Every structure is written in C-alpha cells, then in structure tokens.
Amino acid sequence: MSRLKTDSLFYRLFSTAPHLLFELLGESPAIPYQFQSVEVKQTAFRLDGIFLPPASDPDLPIYFVEVQFQLDPDLYRRLFAEIFLFLAQNPRIRHWKAVVILARRSIEPKQKLAYVSLLESDQVERIYLNQLPPDSGLPGINLVRLVVASRRQAAKQARKLLTQVEQGEPWLPQGVLLELIETIMVYKFSESSREEIAKMLGLAESITQTRVYQEGKLEGRAEGRLEGKLEGKLEGKLEGRAEGKLEGERSLIVRLLTRRMGTLSPGVLTQLQGLSLEQVEALGEALLDFATPSDLDNWFTSL
C-alpha cells in the first residue's frame, strides 16, 4: 500500500478506536485519550498522530505516533525534529512518549546512532506489525494484523476476524468494526469491487449493505457521530467529498472542545457551523493551546 493509503487507513483506525494504540502497547489507561493529526506550526512537518490526555490531567503523557510501511532513511531524524519542535511550541506538555509502528523490522533505518539513547529509553516504543502475536484474542490487534497480511492470507484472516467480531463482546459498535474490516480489504484489493470482496469474505452482500452494519452505523452515530467524522476525514480526503469533509472536521472539533472545556453553549455551536474548512482546520491546531473557554472566545474574536 502507498504511504497515502496507509496514513489514511491508520488515521481511520486510531480516530475510530484510540484505545487500539494502547492495546498494541499492552497498556490500559484509565482515562480515554483523543487522537488527531497535527501540523507543526511554521514548518512543513506533519505528525502522523498525537494522542492527547484530557486537559484535566496534565501529568499524563502525550503520545506521538509514527506509522511507517516503507524504508525512510530520515525517519528518526524527522520524527524527533517534529517532536521537539512541537514540545517547544507547547511548553505546557510535561511528559511524552513516542510510538513508532513499522510494517516489519527490515524497513527500520540503519543509520540511527545519533538517536540510540532515545530509542533505547522508556520514552520510545517500536512496534513491528509482522511480529504481532498470531491468533490474538484481542480483535484490535487482529484488525491491525489484517493490514499487513499478505493478499494470499488476507481473506482467511478477515473471515476469522468477522467470526470473532460477531461472537465476541465488541469494543466498538459491530457495524463500525465490520466497515473497518471491509475498508482494509478494499485497500488491499483496490482492483476488486465490494461485491467481489464480499465473496472473498464468504458474504452474500457487501458488509455496508448488511443489517448488522446498518444497525451498527446508527449506534455509532449515537455514540459520537463516527460516520460523519470518518466520511469527512477519509472519503472527503481521498474522494474529494468536500462537504462531507467539512462536516466531519466540525464533528471532530466539537468532540475535542467538549473534552477540553465541557458542554459547548448553543452560541459556540452556531459559530462553529459558520466556519469554513480552512478555519475549522486552523481551530484544530489552535485548540491545542487552549486552557480556558476564554481562549476559544478570543480565537473567534480574532477572525
């Protein structure tokens, strides 16, 4: 898969299920984190993903995530430059960790002597996806294993995961999980139609047409408007659906602001509805520095 496809796919996985990162790390934080992709100000740097703790718990670490599926000799040079520049721009951050997710060990840069002390510290964790335990009882890990499965093994693994999702206790609405499985398969078999992929999975119809998907989609909307966010961030980004992207960006901003500042007033929600896509994206970066509701008011005043 191309860098664009893997970035978009992991954005979708982590934005839908932020706890998936901690499942990979073998950790279980008591407080939920929020995930977002962040561009470092005044540079061309863009961090693949940042997991932010609630503003009420500043002592919890922030997690920087880098996903790499191809050899990049400058990976660590770029990653640590991005991290330390971000920390310089956000001095309130007290603790941080970096998680580097690599498709396999062989694509890890060989020239890393300058960063050995960081890489061997407790602050950096490297995960090699092809070394994840097989037949894990955790659906989240099995979902990530499907991303790196060979095309020959993918259909078998996907069918097994479908059975696990249907029989187990879902950590996401079933419809959302089913859609993620189909999305991974669509990325891996981009030349095949959804109907052909459904046959690979032993289904009579596309996952998105099944009753459980439709029910799960409604449940997902009720729990956080996941469908709008995912359509806006993935389909809007990849297929040019600008209107869906704007709605998805707004939904994400509302969630982030609510977690930081509590329930938003009707006036604030009205102001958010009037923002353009560029303004919504700018607000997504600015809110990292917000500490009180007055910061948001000042941001609107500056428009």
TrEMBL record:
InterPro entries: DUF2887 (IPR022573), DUF4351 (IPR025587), RpnA (IPR010106). NCBIfam families: T_den_put_tspse. Residues 243-300 form the DUF4351 domain. It comes from Neosynechococcus sphagnicola sy1. This is DUF4351 domain-containing protein. It comes from the Bacteria. Signal peptide: none annotated.
